[in-house]
Amino acid sequence: MTESKPLHLYEELLLLALHDEKGTLNGGYIEHALSGAVLAELLLEEQIIIDDQANGTIKLQMEKEPDDPLFRKAYRLINLWQKPKNLEALLSELANLSSLRYLATEQLCDRGIVDDVEETILYIFSRKVYPTLNPAPEQEIISRMRDGIFKENAQIEPRTCALISLAHHTDYITAAINFHERAKHKARIEAIAKGELAGSATQKAIAACQAAVAASLVMTTIMMTQFNN
């Protein structure tokens, strides 16, 4: 187990997305949400940068492959490019990897935070579910998010700003606050989600990831609609 290591943004977001008892995902498009979280953290840590002088293309700043499996996927995708691409392209390629959610849940299993259970449906079909084993990490995440949202004068660290932003735009924020709280603190949440309460570098990273996630979701929805028709 590696629970003692700080959670990555994508792990925090995944905990919000997983139902504690059932171990199933609440909502859809988890791959896009996870990809947005991976890229937000890489931007915040300056492991990748957006080159505004080159039409917003991505530049890799990592000197070697990262140990984390999802960061490693992003690293390898960038290295495969024949020519530079932008953040939206990278997010789309990352979200299209079928192994993404399983790699992310395996990380939480290895940390001892969730269990890996094979569930049988109608005595025929089986699926993997990931019920909570240790609720403490998610409780800490929710507490940190609620403090940032409800305490008007509180300083919010960049990672928490990014998490609230991604959770807000993917609706996983409902794991931390209820509908009435969300409505009451709408202005505060939107200010955090836009990065207005963070530094310029954080604001840029949040805005870039929001735009990339939104564009990728639109393209996916269009493709699914065309396929179904």
Written description of the protein model:
- This protein has 229 residues and is mainly α.
- Helices cover 55% and strands 8% of the residues.
- It contains 10 helices and 4 strands.
- It has helices at residues 9-17, 30-44, 69-80, 87-95, 100-110, 136-150, 158-170, 179-184, 186-193, 200-228, and strands at 48-51, 57-60, 117-121, 125-129.
- Strands 1-2 form a two-stranded antiparallel ribbon. A two-stranded antiparallel ribbon has the order 3-4.
- Helix 7 crosses helix 9.
- It is globular, with a radius of gyration of 18 Å.
- Mean pLDDT is 87; it is low at 222-229.
Topology of this protein?
Layout: H1 9-17, H2 30-44, E1 48-51, E2 57-60, H3 69-80, H4 87-95, H5 100-110, E3 117-121, E4 125-129, H6 136-150, H7 158-170, H8 179-184, H9 186-193, H10 200-228
Antiparallel strand pairs: 1-2, 3-4
Helix pairs in contact: 1-2, 1-5, 1-7, 2-4, 2-7, 2-10, 4-10, 7-9, 7-10
Q: What attributes characterize this protein structure?
A:
two-stranded antiparallel sheet; globular
Explain briefly what this protein structure is:
The chain has 229 residues and is mainly alpha-helical.
- The proportion of strand residues reads 5-15%
Mean pLDDT: 87
| Strand order within the widest beta sheet | 1-2
Distance between the termini: 47 Å
Are there runs of 5+ residues with pLDDT below 50, and where? 222-229
Task: Specify the helix fraction band.
Answer: 55-70%
Largest sheet, in brief, is:
2 strands, antiparallel
Helix/strand-derived category reads mainly alpha
Order of helices and strands: HHEEHHHEEHHHHH
Task: Give the total of beta strands.
Answer: 4
- Gyration radius, to the nearest Å? 18 Å
Q: What would you call the shape?
A: globular
Tally of individual helices: 10
